[in-house]
Amino acid sequence: MTGTGHILVVDDDETVRDVVRRYLEAGGFTVELAGNGDEALRRFAGREPDLVVLDVMMPGMSGLEVCRRMRERTAVPVVLLTALGEEEDRIAGLRLGADDYVTKPFSPRELALRVMSVLRRARLPARAPAPDVLTDGGLRLRLSAHQATLDGRPLSLTTREFDLLAFFLAQPGTAFSREELLEKVWGWNFGDQSTVTVHVRRLREKIEDDPARPTRIATVWGVGYRYEPVRP
């Protein structure tokens, strides 16, 4: 396992910080450490990392609040560390724009692989077929530039949201299960399928006229989701 990049690791447990640091450094990353939310934001402002590993449950400022404040400034990838069974924290983090999560107790090797996977997705253009520009009505995606607009207005999308929307636009009218979307969009053959549900909800909030009554990203009951092109 080898990688490159500057990683900010935020956790109030010194042992966890040290284990993660040593494992990531052995994989070729440079690592900066923070023991609480305030310190994390100071270090983040001083030098923006390529990725943040962020514990959710910390005294004082929670990891979710740290994630929210980081998201106000930049779309830097975030991997959350959550307690086993804390599904609400995971869902809340994904809604705030986190890119992935690992549950505690975790394997340092698994975390490092997740970090590499998230960085790889963030650094490459969305994996979708030509042409470079995908459009539907007022919705426009330029894949090489990783840019999205709706009726001429920029859309603020995380890497995973962008990849999912590009996949939908490239294959309109086809129904996909959540399991298929995990594998085909993000290359996962494992993972919590609620991740797909959360990202579909976030996309609907950004591209639908009425997210409660979506017309673009349709739910196919018993299957998953289907993208319906805007009718002329």
From TrEMBL:
Q: Which SUPFAM superfamilies match?
A: CheY-like
Which gene is the coding source of this polypeptide chain? regX
Q: Which residues form the Response regulatory domain?
A: 6-119
According to its UniProt entry, this protein's organism is: Amycolatopsis methanolica 239
**What is the superkingdom listed in this entry's lineage?**
Bacteria
Query: 4-aspartylphosphate: which positions carry it?
Result: D55
What sections of the sequence does the record tag as coiled-coil?
none
Question: What PANTHER family would the database entry show?
Answer: DNA-BINDING DUAL TRANSCRIPTIONAL REGULATOR OMPR, REGULATOR OF RPOS
Which keywords belong to this entry?
A: DNA-binding, Phosphoprotein, Transcription, Transcription regulation, Two-component regulatory system
What is the designated name of this protein?
A: DNA-binding response regulator ResD
Under the heading InterPro entries, the entry gives: CheY-like_superfamily, OmpR/PhoB-type_DNA-bd, Sig_transdc_resp-reg_receiver, WalR-like, WH-like_DNA-bd_sf
Q: Name one GO biological process term.
A: regulation of DNA-templated transcription
Report the residue ranges that make up the OmpR/PhoB-type domain in this protein: 131-229
**Pfam families for the chain:** Response_reg, Trans_reg_C
Annotated TM spans: none
Feature: DNA-binding region: 131-229
Which CDD domains does the entry mention? Answer: REC_OmpR, trans_reg_C
**One MF term in GO for this entry?**
phosphorelay response regulator activity
Q: Name one GO cellular component term.
A: protein-DNA complex
Does Iron-sulfur show up as a keyword for this record?
no
Q: Does the keyword DNA-binding apply?
A: yes
